[in-house]
Amino acid sequence: MLLPDIKILDEKDKLLRKVSANIEFPLSEETKKNIQDMITYLKMSQMDEYIEKYNLRAGMGLAYIQIGIPKRIFVIVEELEDKTFKDYILINPKIISHSEEMIYVGEGEGCLSVNREVEGIVPRYARITVESQDLDGNTFRIRVREDISIAFQHELDHLNGILFVDKIDSKNPYKNANKYREI
Ligand code: NI
Predict the structure, then answer these.
(1) DSSP for 21-50, written as a single string
(2) Three-class SS of residue 179?
(3) DSSP 8-class letter at 176
(4) Alpha-carbon distance 174 to 120, whole Å?
(5) pLDDT by residue for the chain (183 residues), tens digit each?
(6) Residue-by-residue DSSP string for 113-149
């Protein structure tokens, strides 16, 4: 596999603070290629061989704004137990329902745009249902839970110009941790 030529913006870049706009169909060939590039990049970032070869940081999600394009698209690549990958492509997504229960990643969230250690937790819904469009513009609903639910909410925040670090109180980074379930 060849590493796609994409540049991921750093948190200091003000573009990451922009609210992304809905995207119209049909998608351009360039948009389709960029989506594939983001997926390939995330896959390679989860494979030891390429982590070593290209000195990659592992990531499971990217929002389009992170490669500089403020449109409402994100992708998630989940590594399954049999070492294959499952891709999620969400276009113009919105949360239509969510659980009462909140969870957080005990070891903290990470982001390919945040290149430093960040202490603290971000409470997220344990389960969400999202309505989205696919590559052809068809509307579909998807229900996700646990780590994938967190990944979706992290990426949805990117589409609204929000980074996970914004949600951590640096003076009290584990605030209310006992109210939520750790995963
Ligand atoms: Ni991120």
Answers:
(1) BP--SSPPHHHHHHHHHHHHHHHHTTSHHH
(2) helix
(3) T
(4) 5
(5) 899 999 999 999 999 999 999 999 999 999 999 999 999 999 999 999 999 999 999 999 999 999 999 999 999 999 999 989 999 999 999 999 999 999 999 999 999 999 999 999 999 999 999 999 999 999 999 999 999 999 999 999 999 999 999 999 989 999 888 999 999
(6) T--S-------EESEEEEEEE-TTS-EEEEEEEHHHH
Helix (H, G, I), strand (E, B) or coil at 177: helix
Q: How far is the CA of 158 from the centre of ligand 1 (A)?
A: 7
Which tokens sit at 124? 């997220």
* 38 φ/ψ angles, rounded to the nearest 5 degrees: -65, -40
Name residues whose C-beta falls within 8 Å of residue 157's C-beta, 6 or more positions apart in sequence.
163, 164, 167
Positions annotated as catalytic residues are 155
How far is the C-alpha of 117 from the C-alpha of 7, rounded, in Å? Answer: 21
Indicate the pTM of the whole model. Answer: 0.97
141 Cα: distance to centroid of ligand 1 (angstroms): 22
**110 Cα–ligand 1 center, Å:** 7
